[in-house]
Amino acid sequence: MSTDPPTADIGQLRHWITGVEVSPENNNPNCKFSARLFVDSELVCNLPWIDHTQPFRWSGILPCDTSHSEVALRLCRSIRDKSRYFNFPAFTISEVDETGDSIIELPEAAWIITVKSLTPKLAEHSYPAEIGKFNSIEGVYNSSEPDGTAKYLFKHALQFARLALSQSTAKVTFLICMKTWELLDQQTELDEMVKDILDGLNCIRDINDTISQAQSSILATAMDQSKKAINDILALLEDISVYIFNRYTRNELVPAPLDEAEPEHANNTEAYVSRLLDLQQEFHTSWSPELESQTNLNNATSEQPNGPWQDEHTPVDESERTTDWCELLTLLKPMDPSGYDHDQGCMDGTREAILSEIVAWTQRRASTESFMWISGQIGMGKTAIAHSLCQRLDKMRALAASFFYRPDDPNNANPLLLFNNLICEIAMHCPAYARVAAEAIRAKPKLCTSHFSLRYEGLVKRPLEQLKSLPMLRSLVVVVDGLDECSDRDARIRILDKLYEMATLVPWLKVIFTSCPVGDIQEHYQSSFLRGSIVHIQQYDASPDIRAYIEDQLGSFAEDKRWPHEGINQLCTMAQGVFLWATLAVGYIRKSKLQTSSRLNKVLSNQKSPVTDHFDALYSRTLRSLDDNEDDIKSAYLGCIGAVLAVSEREPLAVPDLQYLLLVADRIDQTVLEQILKGLGPLLLSTDGRRIQFYHTSFRDFITSSSRSGQFHIRPNQYEADPAACCLAVMQRDLRFNICGLETSHVYNSEVPDLEDRMNTQIQPALKYACMHWIDHFMASPNQVLVEAINKFITSPQLMYWIEVLSLMGHVDIAMSGLSKLMSLELPQITEWGLIGFWIKDAHRFLLSFYDVIATSTPHLYISALAFAPSTSATANRMRPFFPNTIAVAQGGRLYWHPCIKSISHQQTIQSLSISPDGLRFIAGYPDGSLCIWDT
Hints:
By secondary structure, this protein is an alpha+beta fold. It contains 38 helices and 18 strands.
């Protein structure tokens, strides 16, 4: 099912069925009826069952987007669950008379069916009474009480249908909307989806204002010129009405889904709002230029607030408007070129979800939010999104100004560079502001050469405050891209504060900025801006858009040059959602038409290329911005980077859990760690809303290569050792006996009803991670200090507690494989390793012998495995003193481990058996030809 809202063809009349009545009534308590409606043999509606206790009729609203089709009805009678069907003859929609009643009969059936329709003639008859109800609606939307007054935004839809009466369907639309209004008016609370749709109707208010301000002499011509847009808006308002109608009452005529297996789509709201904005733009594009010019002139002369610069009755001509902003351009000298660039935007059809959401937000006047941060890591496509956003806003006449920071521009640190451009652009788009700002300069010429604070106060803050009550047809939006490129931290915080203040000075202005989540911006935004909204680009899956881009740019190359079949797929995978990587890779490959295959292979094998060079430069610049040339700070940063790399490669942790893991081992101060993680924001990606990892694997390649990262180089074994020590410290501290408080050994783990809840409460993520991965970290970077920590661990009861936790988690196999790895490790340079290896080997044999019982019921680790281990078991002998209540075998116990480690049942006779050369696997063959591979 399409997620787009349906739109009727304006060449057809949408027909509305409002009821199905059957006579005589059903008085049989054993009998019930249902029915199906068909249009041109296609099922359009399933009518629910009706028994003898209900009136024999179905009511609601059902749209049919054609006027020349046949409607047929199949009645189903069920007596004691035995059904019989009656197929009534069809009637043609175009033949429905003025009464709207279509009576159909079937000779062999005892019932007469009346299908009731809302016809234009009926609408004409009912309209005066309904317009009277509309005129009596006294409530208005109040932004300070959005929950209680949001329903009054629906008046914009009713007003549009009233203004569009020259269109043949407008009165029908008005009556459909009135049905929905009557339901809305009864609601004490509206759900969020309906609130969002009502909020989107603000753009209909814009259209209503434009139509209302038109001169009567040209109104008919202008309406006819915009006929298609008006009819499309009427059809969309009908669809919105039906959607809201269905949410608040039982519509027995609800349309049958196109695909019964598909659930109701949840993004109707976004689709409706997006379509409203598209039709708003279409309307203004088609509206008579002469009328638009007259409307703008009326706005300029009648909607300006009183002030010293202009008497409210003084006419304003176009030349004066131009003079105002030209004067500002001359005096403030903005960048040339400035503003957005269409060629730098997103490829058509990509990033639609995030763009639609942001555009809808800009015109959502019911919301108190007027400030938005579009946050994303390096190369996520923030700038391309900003260019496309500006283009869309400009087409809607909603772009007040835009500014794009240029990387490495030495002037970026000067706030005047930004605000001079914003002042000039806002003046171009808002004549009232241009007039006030120009008057301010004429009154105080030194504003053009003053420092930032004075210039902002005189040319931004005061002029906007004077225009607070300026009526605006739509919200205007300022877009600033790449704020993090402002190299002076103090300057960008000052800029951030002023941009936020701009967004709060007047109700018709919103501000959007983009930046990487650098530490100072993150901290200041979250603590200071209550009316702010954050859009995280990484939450929008870019993979389909990246694939579309790569296929569009390289599809023909792949065919002409006969690339490997998986070439395009590999590029899409390696991009990892980072548009910049895809753009650089595509550009590099396309530049050589003779050697595209070799360049493709170079990119896929991650060899040195312009792609790696560009990212290396980005990473170096980002890390240099964090470095304050103090060795201890640099060491802390690199240690934190190493920990994140090592942990995220296995199982990413959330920030609090990573902090706990590192802090328990006293590896770093908490305050320093928090600041470092914030500083690494441009490179860190939060997955599932919490878990962090570096956003692209190219960073690992960069930071672990001394030739590429230089002073920031981290050796792989260096960043593995610290997490190993942290894991051992966490386990030593937090592991304990019966950690989940199991009351009995008489049940399997799988039969403990709340085991999952107990584990989540008692075994924190950092401890889970430590139990699962400490061996892998140690194996990657063994050293003397870690060996001493392991010796302490395996000779203490923490060894048993570790096995206990893995049993509860269902991962005893992790303990088995981990101990096996440790057994195979040779460390001749560490003298203690020989003895530790002996303990590890015995612990492995202990687990192997009692694997099933420990994995099945955790308490039996202590009451069975520890109790019945052979008397020569080093593990049992060392652990038993820690658990004095363990039962002892008085006689008949084993002295040594049984040579048979494990017995395995097979459902069939084994015909063949083969063991792998390393002894870690064996494969069994069965009579039916099947094979089974076992892990020894």
